[in-house]
Amino acid sequence: MEQIKEMTAQESLKLISETLNNSRRSILRNNSKGFILWGVLLTVMSLVVYFAWHATGNAVWNLLWFAMPAIGYPLSMLLYKKKDSTVPQSFVGKLLGQVWGVFGVFSLVFSALAVFVVPMPITFTIVLLLGLAESISGVILKNWPIIIGGFILGVGGAVAATLLKTDAQILLFTLGGIVLAATGLIVKCQYK
Questions:
Q1: Could you tell me if 185 and 40 are in contact, meaning their C-beta atoms sit under 8 angstroms apart?
Q2: Which of 31, 35, 105, 174 is the most exposed place for a label (fewest CB within 10 A)?
Q3: Angle of helix 171-190 versus helix 9-56 axis, rounded to 10
Q4: Terminal CA-to-CA distance of the chain, rounded, Å?
Q5: Which is nearest to 7 in space by CA: 72, 18, 87?
Q6: Among candidates 45, 19, 31, 26, which has minimal Cα distance to 145?
């Protein structure tokens, strides 16, 4: 006859803690790809917009920003097509997706309003939202590099957007893309 061993409260808490930590590591490892993808895409797109605007003197090149989600979302779906089958979709993973989804919707709607309804400078707001979304992701994942990267990007970018009054503001998104990609690489190295 098989003997059933009862777990002590301490053993039970240890098992739960290990399970949550393994899940968090897996989520971080998988999300590092998203930070890298969107960071590289943001860097490339910002350089294309900047050089086109700078070369022609025409701000209409900012409309290229609307191509970013059209390029990024299909690439993201391809990137995440092969999911880690050892970890089921968790609340934390869903929450992160929702944070970045809200950021994307706010950015698109705010940008569309600025282009088509009420002309206004939007760099300050978008870079602040980007840094906030990254920092919130770091808080959810309990990861200081993500929190700090988001803080630097959001606060530093907002200050720089206030000080820069030329098309060079676009280069803040280049910096933002580099910060996102670097964050992804740091997380990837932490959770190999």
A1: no
A2: 105
A3: 150
A4: 42
A5: 18
A6: 31
> Which residue, among 73, 50, 71, 72, has the nearest Cα to 62 in the 3D structure?
50
The H or E element spanning position 93 is: helix 91-116
Cα–Cα nearest to 102, from 122, 68, 130, 75: 130
Question: Quick one: pLDDT band at residue 1, thresholds 50, 70, 90?
Answer: very low
Copy the structure tokens of residue 11: 């053993």
- Here the tokens at position 169 are 């503001």
Domain residue limits at 63: 10-190
**Per the domain annotation, does 69 fall within a domain?**
yes
Confirm whether 5 is domain-assigned.
no
Q: Are the beta carbons of 192 and 26 closer than 8 angstroms?
A: no
Q: How many domains does the chain have?
A: 1
Indicate whether 1 belongs to any domain.
Answer: no
| 131 domain-assigned | yes
- What is the tens place of the pLDDT at every residue in 161-192? 899 888 888 888 998 899 889 888 887 787 66
pLDDT tens sequence across 91-100? 777 788 899 8
